[in-house]
Amino acid sequence: MKLNNKYGMPETFTITFTKLNGEKVKDRKAKWTDKCREFKALAGHMCLTFLDLDATERHGKDQYRMATDKITTWNIS
Fold first, then answer.
1. Model-level pTM?
2. If residue 77 lies in a helix (H) or strand (E), which one and from where to where?
3. Which domain covers residue 63, as residue numbers?
């Protein structure tokens, strides 16, 4: 697994998170790029922006998503 040196994140990974509407998303393929980041929102919850490889393949252009820990924490494998 190749790691992104700046953040210690794998370059490509699988992420599982719960959408804000409560729908659980299972195992999205994702990639860490220079546009991705992990940060704490002003409201206090953690956020992770990532390139969704599944959606990118379907739409033909880069599709970035944001996971938050408002409902449940995300899981990266």
1. 0.82
2. none
3. 3-71
